[in-house]
Amino acid sequence: MERHVSPRVRRILKACIFFVLLIGLLHGAAYLVRPEATVRRAQTRSQESVRVFEEPQNSLDVLFFGHSGVYSAISPMEMYRDYGFTSYDCSQPAQLPWESEHWLRALTEKQTPSVVVFEVDQLFYDKNVTVARNSAERLLYGVFPVLKNHWRWKHWFGGRDAGGRSATKGFYYNASVRPYKGKKRFEKTETVYEIGKKQMQSLERVRLLCEKKKISLLLLEVPSLVVWDGSRYNAVRGYAERHGLDFIDLNQRLEEMAFDWKTDTRDKGDHLNYSGARKVSHYLGAYLKGRYALADRREDPAYATWKEDLRRYEEILREGGKE
């Protein structure tokens, strides 16, 4: 006797079958994209930063990871011009530790940096919607990686790929000045900020990956008046001391850099402008060069393209940031 299946059940069965087939197709399609593509074009927040994958293999001495504070404060080309080592800003607005972690894993398939610089302000994105949004995206793209790599489909079907090396190496040039006129300054405290568990787990995985790859890990805080304070400094310092890591808080070295909040910020103390970035890059470059004995690539024929990139970078500065 034939059993009757209601129209509603049929619709549910068809939907389930379609969903199973879709999963299979998407997982199959995911094999067509390279591992680096998960990071490379997935985030459209900063085209300059993802162009790090256009750099020649094993050509970068230092990699910087963090949110917009990194690409606003650190200019790899200023460091190359002054000290000769090569580097790149791997940073996006509101970048979170697990994004930096995945980016580092992808890059170490192509690069063998001597130093990874982890800007610690990203550890404190732990109480807002950014975390929830990025966690949801990470879950979705973990199941369907091809969705995040839709740029490659567009490339295959005639879309333009904004490739080519970046002359700024991820740095964002902005010469505007909006001074901070308040009285807030860094103050020491006995309070220790409790960093979120998920954030600390990502940092720990970054540390272990660097240890495994024999990469020096430097923890860094760039100048910031908006959220940084003594309790956050204590939290990072404690982690650095427990694991024998270098940690520099540039908020406590402003005088050494001749840094001035009246001239060196573009938004009243949150991000730096070019004047501030130049001071940070010169100071940090000297530290990196001396602390980690980084090679001078300026006269190395294998790095001749960096001389051309420097020429293009200096043109960008003269033209006010237009590449």
What is the element string, with H for helices and E for strands? HHHEHHEHEHHHHEHEHHH
The helix content, as a percent range, equals 40-55%
What is the domain tally? 1
Number of helices: 14
Instruction: Just give the CATH class.
Output: Alpha Beta
Termini Cα gap? 75 Å
The count of DSSP E runs of length 2 or more, i.e. the number of strands, is 5
Which short descriptors sum up this protein?
14 helices, five-stranded parallel sheet, 323 residues, Rossmann fold, alpha/beta
Description:
- With 323 residues, this protein is an alpha/beta fold.
- The chain has one domain: SGNH hydrolase (Rossmann fold, 3-Layer(aba) Sandwich).
- It contains 14 helices and 5 strands.
- It has a 5-stranded parallel β-sheet with strand order 2-1-3-4-5, with helices on both faces.
- It starts with 6 loop residues before the first helix and ends in a 5-residue tail after the last helix.
- About 15% of the residues have low confidence.
Short description:
The chain is α/β, with parallel strands linked by helices and 323 residues long. It has one domain (34-318): Rossmann fold (3-Layer(aba) Sandwich). The chain is built from 14 helices and 5 strands.
How are the secondary structure elements laid out?
Layout: H1 7-30, H2 37-40, H3 47-50, E1 62-66, H4 68-73, H5 76-83, E2 87-91, H6 97-107, E3 115-119, H7 129-143, H8 145-148, H9 150-156, H10 197-213, E4 216-221, H11 230-243, E5 246-249, H12 254-257, H13 274-292, H14 304-318
Parallel strand pairs: 1-2, 1-3, 3-4, 4-5
